[in-house]
Amino acid sequence: xxxxxxxxxxxxxxxxxxxxxxxxxxxxxxxxxxxxxxxxxxxxxxxxxxxxxxxxxxxxxxxxxxxxxxxxxxxxxxxxxxxxxxxxxxxxxxxxxxxxxxxxxxxxxxxxxxxxxxxxxxxxxxxxxxxxxxxxxxxxxxxxxxxxxxxxxxxxxxxxxxxxxxxxxxxxxxxxxxxxxxxxxxxxxxxxxxxxxxxxxxxxxxxxx
Length: 209
Description:
Blueprint lengths: L2 H17 L5 E4 L12 E2 L4 E8 L6 E7 L2 E9 L3 E6 L5 E5 L9 E6 L2 E9 L4 E2 L34 E2 L6 E7 L10 H20 L1
Parallel strand pairs: 1-3, 2-4
Antiparallel strand pairs: 3-12, 4-9, 5-8, 5-12, 6-7, 6-9, 10-11
Helix pairs in contact: 1-2
């Protein structure tokens, strides 16, 4: 096989790898997940649940995950009165729920665009704050909605980015369940376009062979 055809074949294989299914697996917190974006634990592709603990009291745990797009349901488990938050890749809040899961547990669901997200869990009243100390959860319904709401916070606040937390709440173990496994890394649009061109060229090369 000559080198141009080898390059085209490698492009095709890479494109196939991006869309290949990954094995579903649970994720366990390692040590203590950080409370802010730089310290978030990055969960692997194929994650179906996260288990961890808020310790000591007033702890906040943050996890980074890649979502492939489409409907997603997130629900907490355990004995804590949990709060569940989701932030986009820049740390802007796009969802918050307090008690819409079973008992005092939390639930978020609905369509969510593909991309990198940060999932935060706390116990009751440990809320996310912006750099000015404003509660950014309040701007999207104070935890009373189960919907993902990208852009909603900016209608009420100029800054909707996670900067710190209100340090309140209890300690205890928790789980977070995903209705669909997390995805692998999302390729950049330019990379996808290049892969598409490579596949097209590979098809033309085969026709000419």
